[in-house]
Amino acid sequence: MMFTNRMFNILVPVISVLLGLIAGAIIMASFGYNPLNGYQALWAGSFGDIYYFGETIRQVTPYIFTGLAVAFAFRSGLFNIGAEGQVIVGWLASVWVGAAFDAPMIIHLPLALLAAALAGAIWGFIPGLLKAKLGVHEVIITIMMNYIALHVSNALIRSVLSENQDSSDPIKESASLASNWLMEMTSYSRLHFGILIALFAAMIMWFLLEKTTAGFELRSVGFNQHASRYAGMNVGKNIILAMVISGAFAGLGGAMEGLGTFGYMPTHSAFTNLGFDGIAVALLGGNNAFGVVLAALLFGTLKIGALNMPTAADVPSELVEIVIALIIFFVASSYIIRWVLLRFKKEGK
Amino acid sequence: MGILDILQSIIPPAMFFSAPLIFTALGGVFSERSGVVNIGLEGLMVMGAFVGIVFNLTFADVFGAATPWISILAAMIVSAVFSLIHAVASVTFRADQVVSGVAINFLALGLGVFLTKQWYDKGQTDMVSQPFYTLDIPVLGDIPVLGPLFFQNMYLTSYLAIILAVVAWYILYKTPFGLRLRSVGEHPAAADTNGINVYAMRYVAVMISGAMGGLGGSVFALTIALNFSQSTIVGQGFMSLAAVIFGKWHPLGAMGAALFFGFAQSLSVISSSIPFLEDVPQIYLLIAPYVLTILALAGFIGRAEAPKANGEPYIKGSR
Prior knowledge:
The structure holds two protein chains of two kinds.
Chain A: H1 5-30, H2 35-47, H3 50-75, H4 83-100, H5 105-134, H6 138-159, H7 180-185, H8 194-211, H9 213-223, H10 225-230, H11 235-262, H12 274-284, H13 289-306, H14 309-313, H15 318-332, H16 334-348
Helix pairs in contact in A: 1-2, 1-15, 2-3, 2-13, 3-8, 3-11, 3-12, 3-13, 4-5, 4-6, 4-11, 4-12, 5-6, 5-11, 8-9, 8-13, 9-11, 12-13, 13-15
Chain B: H1 3-33, H2 41-63, H3 67-92, H4 97-120, H5 146-150, H6 156-174, H7 176-186, H8 188-193, H9 198-225, H10 236-246, H11 251-270, H12 282-298
């Protein structure tokens, strides 16, 4: 049996997920729950019937976007903690355009999506610019931008998007991603057409990174800035570009909530966590587009399924947060998994 | 309202808002100076807040007035042990330190809320009966001008934060241990050649950051939040991380940055009682700390150089 690099890249996430689930089972057992009941409840709550299935896919949709956003930045050597803030401004912009204009759907919907992407891109541009021109750490700037996004959007919802209400006015039908057809098919879950856009975005990311010169430069900068500069690439430009595209993905993730799931934007007293969860999605997905889709599917399943665990198995839903944390931990420690695998391989001979 | 009155309504809240950030940021300085990026500060604070509150609730009858102090001690110990996960991953397992830090954040929050539901059957704990109280310092509080500004209505933990910052500076810059710790973060191979145990130093540094994060979290919980829930620690750890970078990985710099954040956060709380701020819309005060930080980093702070080996696992024998 050969252990190629490619195989490791598939085996490590799979083993990490298994280890995470096993650890979760051990935790459940040690607190006197039946792990089988727990996971059964999780499964029933995510794929048990068509309604839950719809809700799961709905949750997966923004995860794909935020996962792509974080992954795209990672591939260019940048850590975008700011997906969270970019989601918020994207959500805000999409709802704004969705509510403020009247236009046929063929114009209105793309316009609202574009606004979201643009808002996210601007929110990514600022840390990108500061990193490229002044060498300011992108992590700290994106953290700050998250808070600014949260407070500014809350203020705008109260003052501009509504008359002192705690949520914005609803968007017009012509900007909505929601579909009666999908809702009826999934016994009235909030499933919407966003999932198709998300899958399309994943393909775009794959194509952009793997098949274009611009993508090659971005990856090259991610591997080694000095070598890239020596090869004549404009490192600063690529850093900015990476953050802009990353921000646009995250902004679209916000539009999925604004135009699809909710149709409006409530004020947020805390973060949505879509952006932070996107970090986990990107990491488990190995920072590539296909992996991100699979990881988003897994985390969406876990998150939605967890909601059923307290009622069906009496297990606190936070168990799933622990499982997710452990999965990330195992992915991070892939060195040790590789080491063990190689050990087994040697002994097998 | 005179300028003194204004200062008097600004300084004490600024001090108590910044104390948790100072503790945690100092921990971050230790960890990052040894070459281990610690994005898990947030999670370490969550763990500290959780342990601090639970210990306080459980043992308030046993220890009486000493409970908050023993609680923060317990929080330090548990968080230091908890941070071992980050140490094992990033030092021994050569994990990507950012990733492992993210895992710490998720894990601490998950565990904290899971156990809260397990033990208290609800999403948040009761309010603690033995929190920290403000007090006036005898003698010093009677000094005219300075007394009301700095020695009245203060938490003792605020002084502890400043004292520990100086201690941290002394340890890092004036002791052999500090020199070794910094050398491990700058050039681990050279340090190794000189007989310094790189792995051991990094383990110790991460555990110090765990203890300090736990201290920060528990002090926040026992001075400001007074209970534990999902939303007790929301971003204070990230602010502390920002303070580490803002302060250029220097204990006193980090303290200064944390004081600035604390001051800026307190502005939005106390603005209504300050004449020239009461007409400013709340939103500007809310985002002020973050905007000012960005401007400061972009402007006069200039390029901050992280410790050279920050974020790189050390592999013996590699060059």
